[in-house]
Specification:
With 414 residues, the chain is an alpha+beta fold. The chain has 3 domains: 5-151, Rossmann fold (3-Layer(aba) Sandwich), CATH 3.40.50; 164-266, no CATH class; 337-413, Alpha-Beta Plaits, CATH 3.30.70. The protein contains 14 helices and 17 strands. It has a 5-stranded mixed sheet with strand order 1-5-4-6-7, sandwiched between helices. Strands 10-13-12-11 form a 4-stranded mixed sheet. Strand 11, helix 8 and strand 12 (228-234) form a beta-alpha-beta unit. Helix 13 packs parallel to helix 14 (403-410). The radius of gyration is 27 Å and the shape is globular.
Length: 414
C-alpha cells in the first residue's frame, strides 16, 4: 500500500501477466504494527495513537482495489478467507487471464487488531457484512464500461446502506430479539484497535437525546446538535446495553457508507429500477390509447391500417425480400428450478443473489424471482451449490456477450 507501491503500479501498467497477492492487515504487521494508509479512520496503532489532539488514524483508507482498476488492464479481486467460493473463483479467473491480476485479501493481524487467535475468519466475515471491506471483482475482459466489468456479487443486502442482523437478549425473564442495521461501528466494537471510541451508557442515564447510530447518520449536520449516537450491545448475562459512539467512529461510518455508494455506482446498482407491475401498466395504457385512436379514425372514415401504423400499432410484417433471411429466434427457454427437498441450506445461492433465491418456511431454497438477476448468477449458484440441486435452465435473454459460455457451463446442471 505504501512502501513499494510505485513498483507495483509499474508492474500492473506493463500489461504482463504478473499476479500479485496483497495481504491486507491495515497495519505494518512485520515491523511492529505501525499505521499505514490501508487502515480505517479511527484505527489506533503505533504512530496513530489515541489522545486529546488526535484520536487514532485521521485520513480515509486507501483503496488499492480502485487503484488497480485505474490501470484499466488489470483483473482485480477484493475478497476474504471467510468467503472461499468468492475468493477461489476470483483466483481462477485472475490466473487464467493473460494480463496483470491484483488479489487483495482482508487479513487479521491478531495482536494489532486486538482479537483472539481463532477469530480471523469471523472478523473477516463481519468486515464484509459491516461494509468495512466489501467484496468485488473487476474484470476488463467483460466489456468496456464499469458496470460491465465491475461485480459486487457476494455482498449482503446490495440495495441498502447497511445489512440487518438479529440481536437476541433477555428482558423481564423472557428471551427477546430485535432486528438492527449492522454498521461499521458494530464491527469496530469487536476489536481492541477501536475500543477507545466507545463508552458504556448506564441504563439510568438513558434519555431521549440518545439516538441509534444508523438514524443519527441519516440526519443533516444541524439536526445532529445535542444528539448522542449509540449502538446496542449484549453483555454476558444477555442484557441490553447502550454504547455511545464518538465523532471519529461516526466519520468512519460515513466513510464506509460513501465508499459503498461509490461501488454500487460502478456496478450500475444505483439506477432506478422499474417494477414489472409498472411496465405492465404502461403497456396496458399504451395499447388502450392506440386502440382508441384507431376507433376514432375508423369512425371518421380514415384508413385503419394507416392509423395503426401512425400510432405505432401492431401490424403484420411485410414478407421478406427474396434472398433476405428472417431474424433467428433466441432459441428455447427453460425456466430455472431447484430440487427444494434436497437443499442443505448452505447459503451459497442466497449470498450470491437474494433477489433470485430465498428460503421457504422449512429453510429450503426456492426460486424467488427467476429474472431477479442475470443468467450468470443462476449458473454460478448451480456451480457453488454443495448439494447440486440448482438447475439454471436456459436464458430467455441471450444478449450477454458470454451467453454461449454460460449455457455450456449450465449444461451439466440441467
Amino acid at each position: 500500500y505504501d512502501i513499494g507501491f510505485q513498483n507495483l503500479s509499474r508492474a500492473l501498467a506493463s500489461g504482463k501477466p504478473i499476479k500479485t497477492l496483497v495481504v491486507d492487515t491495515q497495519v505494518y504487521s512485520n515491523t511492529g504494527g505501525q499505521a499505514c494508509t490501508s487502515g480505517f479512520i479511527g484505527q489506533i496503532s503505533d504512530m496513530a495513537q489515541y489522545g486529546k489532539a488526535i484520536q487514532g488514524k485521521q485520513e480515509p483508507r486507501k483503496e488499492i482495489g480502485l487503484l488497480g482498476m485505474a490501470h484499466r488492464n488489470t483483473f482485480v479481486l477484493q475478497s476474504t478467507i471467510a468467503h472461499p467460493s468468492h475468493m477461489i473463483e476470483g483466483f481462477i479467473h485472475g490466473l487464467k487471464q493473460r494480463r496483470p491480476a491484483l488479489f487483495n485479501l482482508y487479513s487479521s493481524c491478531q495482536p494489532e487488531h486486538g482479537i483472539g487467535d481463532d477469530m480471523s475468519s469471523q472478523q473477516a466475515k463481519l468486515a464484509v457484512e459491516s461494509r468495512a471491506y466489501p467484496l468485488f471483482t473487476y474484470d476488463p475482459e467483460k466489456g468496456l464500461t464499469p458496470d460491465e466489468c465491475f461485480d459486487l456479487s457476494g455482498n449482503p443486502a446490495l440495495e441498502t446502506a447497511w445489512p440487518n442482523y438479529t440481536v437476541k437478549y433477555r428482558e423481564g425473564g423472557r428471551d427477546r430479539e430485535m432486528t438492527l442495521p449492522l454498521t461499521f461501528a458494530d464491527f469496530a466494537i469487536t476489536e481492541v484497535r477501536f475500543r477507545k471510541h466507545f463508552r458504556v451508557a448506564p441504563a439510568d442515564t438513558w434519555n431521549e437525546k440518545m439516538i441509534p447510530l444508523a438514524e443519527f447518520l441519516e440526519l443533516e449536520e444541524p439536526d445532529r446538535a445535542g444528539r448522542f449516537p449509540y449502538i446496542w450491545s449484549v453483555d454476558k448475562a444477555m442484557r441490553l446495553s447502550r454504547l455511545l459512539v464518538d465523532r471519529t467512529i461516526v466519520e468512519s461510518c460515513e466513510d464506509r457508507a460513501n465508499f459503498w455508494t461509490m461501488l454500487k455506482s460502478l456496478a450500475g446498482l444505483d439506477r432506478a429500477e422499474i417494477s414489472e407491475e409498472a411496465i405492465e401498466e404502461r403497456v396496458r395504457a399504451d395499447v388502450a390509447g392506440k386502440i382508441a385512436a384507431g376507433l376514432v379514425r375508423l369512425a371518421g372514415g380514415g384508413d385503419v391500417s394507416l392509423a395503426a401504423s401512425a400510432e405505432g400499432g401492431v401490424a403484420t410484417a411485410a414478407p421478406a425480400a427474396a434472398g433476405e433471411a428472417a431474424p433467428a429466434p433466441n432459441g428455447d427457454w427453460i425456466a430455472p428450478w431447484i430440487d427444494t427437498p434436497e437443499c442443505t441450506a448452505c447459503d451459497e445461492c442466497i449470498k450470491l443473489n437474494p433477489k433470485i433465491f430465498e428460503y421457504n418456511a422449512d429453510k429450503k431454497a426456492v426460486i424467488k424471482n427467476a429474472t431477479g438477476g442475470p443468467y450468470e448468477d443462476l449458473v454460478k449458484a448451480a456451480e457453488r451449490c454443495t448439494a447440486r440441486v440448482i438447475h439454471p435452465g436456459l436464458p430467455k435473454d441471450r444478449s450477454a456477450k458470454n451467453v454461449d459460455d454460460l449455457i455450456q457451463r449450465a449444461e451439466k446442471f440441467n
